[in-house]
């Protein structure tokens, strides 16, 4: 069984979804420390040809807290609520994109989802986009794997989760090359691969292509079948 593990990110770039699609089971790593300035609560969209940041507004975020201990701003019916403002921002940026009518209901469902916990909010968004793209990967949540040894850290914790779930192959994002060693996994009878996204470009309002944006950008400019094809545009490296 092929397994991948990653912290929950907010509407992440295409490579994140390739990581999920490459595995039989994907674990949302919600019980590790929140990373300030990372991709857990923010991402980038395209506005007038330039990349801009958007984010989910948090409550009580701290690097001393686990991701699943961070809250969201309380829900309100006010049109000035951060979620409404974020949705309006993306509507303004992409209202002329070819797939806007089809993708907008998905974004509304995700962004306006009523939840006061950051990890559960992100989990919902991950599951919804997987459903939209027909990604069959089984999704689990790290904090709900009761048999794992939470006292472990770094690669030992990852190996322990692989063992708990019966995986024989672990697939990690390409950035993990500096974190994980082949010999450590081989000693446990595990194959270790790193996924690298192949170069992908698509039209963005006829302007110079801006790579590495949120999956929102990919969905707005490409029909569903094209995006499903993009999910396979990667290489596995050892």
What does this entry show, briefly?
The chain has helices at residues 14-21, 82-94, 100-111, 118-132, 154-165, 182-186, 215-221, 224-230, and strands at 2-6, 25-28, 42-47, 50-55, 58-59, 71-72, 138-141, 169-173, 191-197, 234-237. It is an alpha/beta fold and 238 residues long.
Key traits:
238 residues; alpha/beta; 6-stranded mixed beta sheet; two-stranded antiparallel sheet; 8 helices; 10 strands; 33% helix
Could you estimate the helical fraction of the residues in percent? 25-40%
SS class: alpha/beta
Beta percentage is: 15-25%
Strand order of the largest sheet: 7-2-1-8-9-10
Q: Give me the strand/helix succession.
A: EHEEEEEHHHEHEHEHHE
On the 0 to 100 scale, the average pLDDT is: 94
N-to-C span: 17 Å
Rg, nearest Å: 18 Å
E-strand count:
10
Q: Give the count of helical stretches.
A: 8
Helix/strand layout:
Elements: E1 2-6, H1 14-21, E2 25-28, E3 42-47, E4 50-55, E5 58-59, E6 71-72, H2 82-94, H3 100-111, H4 118-132, E7 138-141, H5 154-165, E8 169-173, H6 182-186, E9 191-197, H7 215-221, H8 224-230, E10 234-237
Parallel strand pairs: 1-2, 1-8, 2-7, 8-9
Antiparallel strand pairs: 3-4, 5-6, 9-10
Helix pairs in contact: 2-3, 3-7
Walkthrough of the structure:
This protein has 238 residues and is of the alpha/beta class. It has 8 helices and 10 strands. It has helices at 14-21, 82-94, 100-111, 118-132, 154-165, 182-186, 215-221, 224-230, and strands at 2-6, 25-28, 42-47, 50-55, 58-59, 71-72, 138-141, 169-173, 191-197, 234-237. The chain has a 6-stranded mixed beta sheet with strand order 7-2-1-8-9-10. It is globular and about 55 Å long. The two termini are 17 Å apart. The mean pLDDT is 94.
